[in-house]
Amino acid sequence: MPDLSPDDTLALIRSRRTIHLFDERPVDSDLIDAALEAAVQAPNHRRTRPWRFYVLGPESRVALVARNTEMVRSGKGEEAAANKQAAWSRIPAMIVVTSLRSDDAMREREDYGAVSAAIQNLSLYLHSAGVGVKWSTGGITRDGQALDLLGIDPAREYVAGLLMIGYAATSPADEVRSADAVTRRLP
Known about the structure:
It is a single chain. The chain has helices at 6-15, 29-39, 58-76, 78-89, 105-128, 144-150, and strands at 51-55, 93-100, 132-136, 157-166. By secondary structure, the protein is an alpha+beta fold. It has a 4-stranded antiparallel sheet, covered by helices on one side. Helix 2 crosses helix 5 (105-128), helix 3 runs antiparallel to helix 4 (78-89) and helix 3 runs antiparallel to helix 6 (144-150). The longest helix has 24 residues, at 105-128. It is globular, with a radius of gyration of 18 Å.
């Protein structure tokens, strides 16, 4: 077992927050690779290993930002598009995470759970290194043009999320959360 106490683990989990605004410092590719190794350690029923990771390089990021900007422009106007483009252009790293499709509805559901656990592993690993993550399921993750751009075949896999990765420009406020409000103890 690792030399990490349960209290240390809980402190890491409690301190992780979704980052909405990143500074422009690059995230080392070796750190991203290590986070992907953490991701694939997630539990997965029947060992399906349903996750697929698309690590976007500079060209892919520029193309995705352009497509997202176009989508925002058509729905919310020029000012919103310019703001979104500026914010997304500062994001140092992006990973699109997909889950393999299945003809078996229960398996597809179990696989999505496994992919979610993989994303949490990746997020916690990066958080332990001082790097933040935002897990987005916005319209860009379902847009046919964006999927084509990334080489994702929607008949074979679906996007579980777009992970935006970088160092936080601002620190999110701490939240007090308790399991008591959502826990029911049965006899």
